[in-house]
């Protein structure tokens, strides 16, 4: 995208995330939310931070990306309008793909490759499959492989963009059918995936709004939950 970012660097707060550890995205988005129209942020990363484009776009930012070297990208995010976070489409879904940062710890080129692959699958502008379908397919694959961390994240993302409780009921009935009663009872039932589903269902039946339900679910099954977080966490003694 073309904007005046590189011509107005004096208006930009520089955020160098190359050496940051852990999930810095919530803090970055919180900082971005307080940026005035006409000003911006310059984010420095060791690979092109493609997943960040949609998240910042939903807050009203345009961007220009400058590749300084193979290990340094500067993205100038310029705020062109004030927009709030609503979780109404894929660009603004919760539980961003922070696992990409794990590949960066191995090799910046690997991270760049993975990010571009992610963009081809999840950032495609004219996708033949709607986002909710993609998430449910990914969720089901996660369950089949025993990756309940991934499956839980996909369920919450799908709920944030409109997945209904009725659809969840049918989905989990299919899991019983395809995986078997015994596997469902011993593996799926005790998982954070089933816990998130039950919490969503209970709160919905009590008449809570989708916004309120999502907030509560993210508090219990969001990045602070070690069974859902994809970043390394040291065990506390």
Give the percentage of residues in beta strands.
5-15%
Q: Specify the CATH architecture of the largest domain.
A: 2-Layer Sandwich
Low-confidence stretches: 1-6, 87-91
What is the spatial order of strands in the main beta sheet?
Answer: 1-2-4-3
CATH superfamily of the largest domain: TusA-like domain
What number is the mean pLDDT?
88
Strand count: 4
Describe the structure.
- The chain is an alpha+beta fold and 237 residues long.
- It has 2 domains: 1-128, Translation Initiation Factor IF3 (2-Layer Sandwich), CATH 3.30.110; 129-225, no CATH class.
- It has helices at 25-33, 50-57, 100-104, 108-122, 131-144, 148-160, 165-179, 181-188, 192-205, 210-221; strands spanning 12-16, 40-45, 61-69, 72-79.
- Strands 1-2-4-3 form a 4-stranded mixed beta sheet, covered by helices on one side.
- Helix 5 packs antiparallel against helix 6, helix 7 packs across helix 8 (181-188) and helix 9 (192-205) packs antiparallel against helix 10 (210-221).
- The longest helix is centred in the middle third of the chain and has 15 residues, at 108-122.
- The chain is globular.
- Residues 1-6 and 87-91 have low confidence and may be disordered.
